[in-house]
Amino acid sequence: MISVNDFKTGLTVEVDGDIFTVLDFQHVKPGKGAAFVRSKLKNLRNGNTVEKTFRAGETIGRAQIDNRGVSYLYASADEHTFMDNETYDQFTLTSDQLKWELNFLKENMNVNIISYKGEILGINLPNSVELKVIETEPGIKGNTATGATKNAKVETGLNVQVPLFINEGDVLIIDTREGKYSSRA
């Protein structure tokens, strides 16, 4: 058990039978009434974000999440196959479980699998990945007064706003948390 007063960003907790990670929290001490903790939690089973308020000092269960290194092997229809790097066991996840992550996954990429008591909840991507631009419009000279951007499609199908100097074939570093262009590789 853990007190809500000890919340930290990234902490995993069990609330009402679901597993959540703490995205944001705020301790509130109103002038009248009892103190409380307002939090923003992400459900690790379905990806939904909820806001919950707890009384100060309230205790909730702490969820022990396991992270293991795995390799993404291939996709077939609606299933994606991964292999555990230590035991070489293979398992599959559906596209529904990997909605956001599919924008960044390439074959043979190493990621971490998140599991709770044997139940696979999803994967953790690295903070940034290198992806090749497969389609973009040419930049127009003289159109750069205010840091203009254009649309570029990368090899995974993700559309990203990039500076005008980016061309097809360039390899970009993309931030996986926000899905935005960081720099050229």
Features:
0% helix; single chain; 185 residues
Q: What does this molecule look like?
A:
This protein is mainly beta. Helices cover 0% and strands 55% of the residues. The protein has a 6-stranded antiparallel beta sheet with strand order 1-6-2-3-4-5, with no helix packed on it. It has a 5-stranded antiparallel beta sheet with strand order 9-8-7-10-11, with no helix packed on it. Strands 14-13-12-15-16 form a 5-stranded antiparallel beta sheet, with no helix packed on it. A hairpin with a 4-residue loop joins strand 15 and strand 16 (180-184). It is flat, with a radius of gyration of 21 Å. The relative contact order is 0.13. The mean pLDDT is 88.
How are the SSEs ordered, and which strands pair?
Blueprint: E1 2-3, E2 12-15, E3 18-28, E4 36-43, E5 49-55, E6 59-62, E7 66-76, E8 79-84, E9 90-94, E10 110-116, E11 119-124, E12 128-136, E13 149-154, E14 159-163, E15 171-175, E16 180-184
Antiparallel strand pairs: 1-6, 2-3, 2-6, 3-4, 4-5, 7-8, 7-10, 8-9, 10-11, 12-13, 12-15, 13-14, 15-16
Subcellular location: Cytoplasm
Keywords: Cytoplasm, Elongation factor, Protein biosynthesis
Main location: cytoplasm
